[in-house]
């Protein structure tokens, strides 16, 4: 079974970012109407300019409050974050900042938008392999992303039999808007992502390394008991 995107409404959260921009392009190429937003006026203006003339609606303010029903949500909030030193060297103010960006944003999005996804639709959390493998100077990012993996596990469990398919895409490569060697162009990521939105796959963690190897049927095992 496939779930065509033609005529469907796809909400992309984090659309000003590298990953989100790719998700917008991929969904547009498959015939979707895309809804995006940004927290900043500059972000809204940039989205309007980038997607002018395409089937993209740029909303301002509380996005969820302006929507009734949508077909698909791609949640791609948060950015790369590192600081010199160890975990215990970080100022206390850093934790709310990182948690807000990588975990609270996902909790808020799932709380407000997941109930608006149609029974035939999907909700996809974008996460990163940085949640699993600690890297020097990325301490707080690893912890906050770990919370996002836990959120993903809860949502995928609770929706394992509901109409809305909840999945996670766990990225382990670098994705950027401007192509350069060693980096996956955003649009190529987005084209691959549409395979998951259109597939009859649910409660899965689908790894992304390269567009050509991305396959919704190839999934990572969930946490061990
Ligand atoms: N790019 C990669 O190579 C890569 C690799 C692995 C994992 N990931 C994951 O993919 C996600 C997106 O990464 P990216 O590279 O696209 O990041 P990015 O280019 O830095 O963009 C970040 C996006 O997140 C939004 N955002 C930031 N803080 C937020 C907050 N507190 N609340 C709501 N939205 C917020 C921003 O929206 P505004 O317009 O509102 O600022 C922006 O659209 C992250 O979770 C990251 O861990 C990315």
Mean pLDDT: 95
Total count of domains: 1
CATH homology group: NAD(P)-binding Rossmann-like Domain
Number of helices: 5
User: Which small-molecule ligands are present, each listed once?
Assistant: NADP nicotinamide-adenine-dinucleotide phosphate
Bulk shape:
globular
**Count of β-strands:** 9
Measured by DSSP, the beta-strand proportion falls in: 15-25%
Task: Indicate the CATH class.
Answer: Alpha Beta
- Uncertain runs are none
Q: And the CATH topology?
A: Rossmann fold
Q: Quickly give the structural class.
A: alpha/beta
Radius of gyration: 17 Å
Helix content: 25-40%
Biggest sheet statistics: 7 strands, parallel
Strand order of the largest sheet: 3-2-1-4-5-6-9
H-E string: EHEHEEHEHEEEHE
Describe what you observe in this structure.
- There is one protein chain.
- By secondary structure, the protein is an alpha/beta fold.
- It has a single domain (9-213), classed as NAD(P)-binding Rossmann-like Domain (Rossmann fold, 3-Layer(aba) Sandwich).
- 33% of the residues lie in helices and 20% in strands.
- It is built from 5 helices and 9 strands; from the N terminus they run E-H-E-H-E-E-H-E-H-E-E-E-H-E.
- It has helices spanning 18-29, 41-50, 94-113, 139-158, 186-198; strands at residues 9-13, 33-36, 56-58, 70-75, 117-128, 165-171, 175-176, 184-185, 205-208.
- A 7-stranded parallel sheet has the order 3-2-1-4-5-6-9, with helices on both faces. It has a two-stranded parallel ribbon with strand order 7-8.
- Helix 1 packs across helix 5 and helix 3 packs parallel to helix 4.
- The chain is globular.
- The mean pLDDT is 95.
- Residues 14-20, 38-40, 43, 76-79, 100-102, 105, 126, 128, 171, 174-175 line the site of NADP nicotinamide-adenine-dinucleotide phosphate.
